[in-house]
């Protein structure tokens, strides 16, 4: 019988693991929900594991996300990581803007006045209206025939 000798080598990294303290903010718009994390960094924006330009193709969506960062003068100084879910591109953009505003206000309380003045902390409560029975949609009726 042959004996198997197992040698285990442990390679421990000499670099200490740096724990990044993220500040969280949750934003919602229509049926979209975005969980936003911010931390001091180089200014990268990542949405669902993709860069901003890869995720949003419309220029208005990309510009809208920079709104809270420009109002508070922290553009290029904060890393933004987003998990966006539900809705479409426009709803997700609105949710990200609100979540980013909330995270920045939590990160630094002095920024809240500027964010609230620009409307980045106000929840847009408009939702899709439900379909009613006896109708084709929320407000559209079936066609009426007199004869």
Give structural notes:
The chain is α+β, with helices and mostly antiparallel strands and 147 residues long. The protein has a domain at 23-118: 2-Layer Sandwich (Ribosomal Protein S5, domain 2), CATH 3.30.230. Helix content is 29%, strand content 20%. It contains 5 helices and 5 strands. A 5-stranded mixed β-sheet has the order 1-2-5-3-4. Strand 3 (45-47) and strand 4 (50-51) form a beta hairpin. Helix 2 runs parallel beside helix 4. The longest helix has 19 residues, at 89-107. The N and C termini lie far apart (97 Å).
Short description:
With 147 residues, the chain is an alpha+beta fold.
List keywords for this structure.
alpha+beta; single chain; about 150 residues; 5-stranded mixed beta sheet; about 30% helix; Ribosomal Protein S5, domain 2
Share in helix: 25-40%
Based on Cα principal axes, name the global outline.
Answer: extended
What share of residues are in beta strands? 15-25%
Residue ranges: pLDDT <50 for 5 or more in a row? Answer: none
Order of strands in the sheet with the most strands? 1-2-5-3-4
Q: Name the CATH architecture of one domain.
A: 2-Layer Sandwich
Summarize the biggest pleated sheet.
Answer: 5 strands, mixed
Q: Could you spell the SSE succession in H and E letters?
A: EEEEHHHEHH
Instruction: Summarize model confidence as the mean pLDDT.
Output: 90
Structural class based on helices, strands and sheet pairing: alpha+beta
CATH topology of one domain: Ribosomal Protein S5, domain 2
How many DSSP helices?
A: 5
Which CATH class of one domain?
Alpha Beta
Radius of gyration, in Å, reads 23 Å
Terminal CA distance:
97 Å
For the secondary structure, the number of strands is 5
């Amino acid at each position: 019988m042959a004996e198997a000798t197992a040698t285990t080598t442990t390679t421990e990294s000499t670099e200490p693991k740096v724990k990044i303290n993220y500040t969280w903010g949750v934003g919602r718009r229509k049926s979209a929900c975005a969980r936003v994390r911010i931390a001091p960094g180089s200014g990268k924006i990542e949405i669902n594991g993709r860069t901003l330009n890869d995720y949003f193709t419309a220029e208005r969506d990309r510009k809208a996300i920079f709104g809270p960062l420009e109002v508070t003068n922290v553009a290029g100084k904060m890393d933004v990581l987003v998990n966006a879910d539900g809705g479409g591109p426009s709803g997700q953009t609105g949710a990200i803007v609100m979540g980013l505003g909330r995270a920045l206000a939590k990160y630094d309380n002095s920024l809240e006045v500027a964010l609230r003045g620009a409307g980045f902390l106000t929840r847009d409560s408009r939702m899709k209206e439900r379909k009613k029975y006896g109708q084709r949609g929320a407000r559209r009726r079936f066609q009426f025939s007199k004869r």
